[in-house]
Amino acid sequence: MMMRIPTFSTLLLLLALAPLSGAMAQNSIGPLPANPPPAAARAPITVPATPDLTLPPTPGVPDQGDIPAAPVSELPPSRFPGSATGPEPARMPAERSTLLYPPGAEILPSGTDAVLADIVARLKAHPAERLELRAYASSQTTRPTDARRIALLRARALRDRLVQLGLDPLRLLVFAEGSAAGTTAPATAPDRVDLVIRP
Length: 199
Known about the structure:
By secondary structure, the chain is an alpha+beta fold. It contains three helices and four strands, in the order αβαβαββ. β2 (130-138), α3 and β3 (172-179) form a beta-alpha-beta unit. It is elongated, with a radius of gyration of 62 Å. 13% of the residues are buried.
């Protein structure tokens, strides 16, 4: 197929019609407004006033000179008679106590329990301490074994009584010594038991 080449007269016709087509296209669009409408005015923002932060004055201390004193009232009697401080604490014995025996006696002397109770209370309050029982006895014979036997019986009776009062037997150390007749007696009483508290 052969392409048709426009002639010179056709080109002139197209050039003549170009301004007309532009004017027609321009007339098809409506006229533009001269000035756009003004935007609606915004209402002003109202800022609240700053509140008053001033503290009111501190009221003064009222005069209390006219206030009468409160009447003194006595407390009602206690419903529980007796001392309010509780029972009397146990007496703390000395580091060393001595029990005296009549010659040849093996049983505990009278009044021994009061001394032993104080010793047991102290040893219970101090678990690290121990008690030594050093028993001495004199003998009317020349055999020292008789005096040592009496001293051992005294120490055993004393140990058994301490255990009955609640003392651990493992905290008791027992020593028995005696002296026969005609030997040199110690400066203190020969028939005795020394109770010595050791740390």
